[in-house]
Amino acid sequence: MIPPLQQIRLRSISRWMQDNRKTEFQKLTRSGELNNRVTELDAQMIETFETNEDQLKNSMMDNQTWGTEAGLTQFQTQRLEMWNQVVQDFLPVTSDQGQED
Predict the structure, then answer these.
(1) Which of 35, 59, 62, 89 has a CA between 20 and 30 Å from the CA of residue 53?
(2) Is 34 helix (H, G, I), strand (E, B) or coil?
(3) How much is the pTM?
(4) Closest alpha carbon to 4 in 91, 65, 74
(5) Residue 18: its pLDDT value, please?
(6) What Rg value do the Cα atoms of the chain yield, rounded?
(7) b/e map of 30-61 (b: 16 or more CB within 10 Å)?
(8) Where are the alpha helices (DSSP H) in the chain?
(9) 53-91 tens-digit pLDDT
(10) Is residue 93's pLDDT more than 60?
(11) In terms of pLDDT, which residue wins out, 59 or 93?
(12) What is the pLDDT at residue 35?
């Protein structure tokens, strides 16, 4: 399912923040604000995805591919690509991740 279920998204965002060695996220963990920030970030990611999805639908309607078999394949493929881009934009891999202190 694109995007994944909310529970999975929240867990992924939380894990990304905890793995990220940036001071900003370490402070969030210590202050107890991590859950609030995770929820906010999830909402931003979903809003961005839905905006992009709407633009894709409108484009496909303009091109008269919406509702066709080829259009369905294109839509599903592009939704997956859009979700991957949203994740990359909001949860980038940092040089600190995966390194042991």
Answers:
(1) 35
(2) helix
(3) 0.82
(4) 91
(5) 79
(6) 17
(7) eeeebeebbeebbeebeebbeebbeebeeebe
(8) 6-19, 23-31, 34-62, 69-90
(9) 999 999 999 999 999 999 999 999 999 999 999 999 999
(10) yes
(11) 59
(12) 84
Per the CB < 8 A criterion, the answer to whether 34 and 28 are in contact is yes
- Could you tell me how far CA 77 lies from the centroid of its own chain? 16
Q: Where are the domains of the chain?
A: 6-90
CA distances from 23 to 11, 27, 65, 88, 100 (A): 20, 6, 47, 20, 16
In 3D space, the residue among 9, 5, 27 whose CA is nearest the CA of residue 18 turns out to be: 27
Report the distance separating Cα 75 and Cα 67, nearest Å.
10
Amino acid at 51: T
pLDDT in tens, 5-29: 999 999 999 888 878 766 566 666 6
Which of 85, 100, 96, 84 lies closest to 16 in space, CA to CA? 96
Contact 99, 19 (CB under 8 A): no
Distance of alpha carbon 84 from the chain centroid: 7
